[in-house]
Specification:
Elements lengths: L6 E8 L2 E8 L15 E9 L6 H21 L5 E9 L4 H12 L4 E5 L4 H13 L3 E4 L6 H4 L15 E3 L4 H15 L4 E6 L3 H17 L2 E7 L8 H10 L3 E5 L2 H14 L4 E3 L6 H5 L8 E5 L10 H10 L9 H21 L9 H8 L5 E3 L2 E3 L12 E7 L2 E8 L3
Parallel strand pairs: 3-4, 3-5, 5-6, 6-7, 8-9, 8-10, 10-11, 11-12
Antiparallel strand pairs: 1-2, 12-15, 13-14, 15-16
Helix pairs in contact: 1-11, 2-3, 5-6, 7-8, 11-12
């Protein structure tokens, strides 16, 4: 992990426009430059787990956002504006994410935030960011209630926070896609259902169950696990006695990997989960991962013509951490904020206004539409991505291999 020293920004008002001056230093070789004196500086905040069990995903998010910022500066995407990234570590903890939100709100140069990774963390950040009219775009949150409210299951969809957007699709779609894949493609009719009791995992499992039983599949047993545990032998015993032909897990790879391995010590059946499992670290932590299945948002960036430049630029930048599951979506999330800033500047004689800059960037998000790394990028009336494509992957030969991509009818 690269060391980062602090960056201090001071604001000066000149002729009604916001001019920011950077002082201090960062010994992060990939940070964006000032781009020359006289430029306005806009800071994009980032919140993700940069340390801890989920840091592989978090560092991929940070690096991809940084690449977008550096590209915008290099190409002068917004003339007269230099972008900087301020990345904070939430350790995958909601309380820390909320503290980070407050910190970023208190830094007036920040006009938008990318992240977080976890839906539970997002829940703690949404209200303070919305109150501050701070645009938030997550590349990874899939909890449906974040954009459609707690009553979305009954069809009563109401957007709770106008400042929240995401480039990943919802668990309603992801769980249903997984259910269709397991029932129709893998031809598995009996599943044992497990979740980690967190908002992401529980929501994903519920969505899977609803679609799977609708299709005619049978849930032969259910259980909940503590995501901090690593001994799951009692659960493995229950799975074996249930007669299940597969396990579906709503949760993330730090617990999912040992859970899968211990179940296979008892019975050799496939273990399936969502995008929280789709990480190279799941395979590293699971000696019996072969044959396991995961879904993830979008299509593999390696298969997209639109992602070729992103992949090449990421490699050229020399990041030691992989961009992982959310790299392309993070780049697009960051770029959506950059595009909103570009719209604001164009509407204000090329300047970012000193007054209500955050509110103006937020309002501009409704106009954002561009061809991104993951394909066409835009948002619907709930702040959800209009790109609902999903992909199923299977561990084959010690790596994740895409099997099929599609949408849910």
């Amino acid at each position: 992990m690269r060391h980062r020293s602090s960056l201090i920004l001071t604001a000066v008002l000149t002729t009604g426009a916001l001019t920011l001056t950077a002082c201090g230093s960062r010994d992060d070789s990939k940070s964006s430059s000032d781009g020359g004196s006289g430029n306005q500086t806009v800071v994009i905040g980032l919140d993700a787990p940069l340390t801890g069990d989920l840091s592989a995903l978090g560092l991929g998010i940070k690096n991809s956002a940084e690449l977008a910022v550096n590209t915008a500066n290099k190409d002068k995407t917004v003339p007269g504006v230099t972008f900087k990234l301020q990345a904070l570590d939430d350790q995958a903890q909601p309380s820390v994410g909320q503290q980070n939100a407050v910190k970023l709100i208190g830094t007036k140069e920040v006009l938008g935030i990318v992240g977080p990774l976890n839906s539970g963390v997002a829940q703690s950040m949404q209200k303070p960011l919305n109150d501050a009219k701070m645009t938030q775009v997550s590349p990874a949150n899939t909890g449906t209630e974040l954009t459609q409210g707690n009553n979305w299951k009954t069809g009563d969809k109401k957007r709770p926070y106008a400042s929240y957007f995401r480039t990943s699709t919802t668990d309603q779609i992801q769980g249903a896609f997984a259910a269709k894949y397991l029932f129709e493609t893998a031809k598995i009719k009996d599943v044992y259902l497990i979740d980690d009791q967190k908002p992401y995992g529980a929501g994903l499992a519920a969505s899977f169950k609803a679609k799977y039983t609708e299709l005619g599949g049978k849930i032969v047993g259910t259980d909940h696990v503590n995501p901090e545990d690593r001994d799951f032998n009692s659960v493995a015993t229950k799975v074996k006695s249930s007669g299940a032909k597969a396990v579906y897990y709503g949760g993330e790879y730090p617990a999912g990997a040992p859970l899968s391995q211990q179940i296979k010590d008892s019975i050799k059946i496939p273990f399936m989960g969502g995008d929280g499992m789709y990480s190279a670290d799941f395979i590293k932590l699971n000696k019996k991962a072969e044959g396991d299945i995961a879904t993830s948002v979008g299509k593999p960036v390696e298969e997209l013509e639109s992602a070729k430049k992103f992949i090449a630029d990421y490699k050229t930048a020399g990041y030691k951490d992989a961009y992982e599951a959310y790299g392309g979506g993070t780049y697009d999330a960051t770029w959506s904020i950059i595009e909103a800033v570009k719209i604001v500047a164009a509407e204000n004689d090329g300047k970012i206004p000193a007054d209500d800059a955050r509110a103006k960037v937020l309002a501009a998000m409704d106009k954002v539409k561009f061809d991104g790394v993951t394909g066409p990028v835009s948002f619907d009336e709930f702040g959800d991505t209009t790109n609902t494509l999903m992909t199923a992957y299977q561990v084959t030969g010690g790596k994740w291999v895409s099997k099929t991509s599609g949408t849910v009818d």
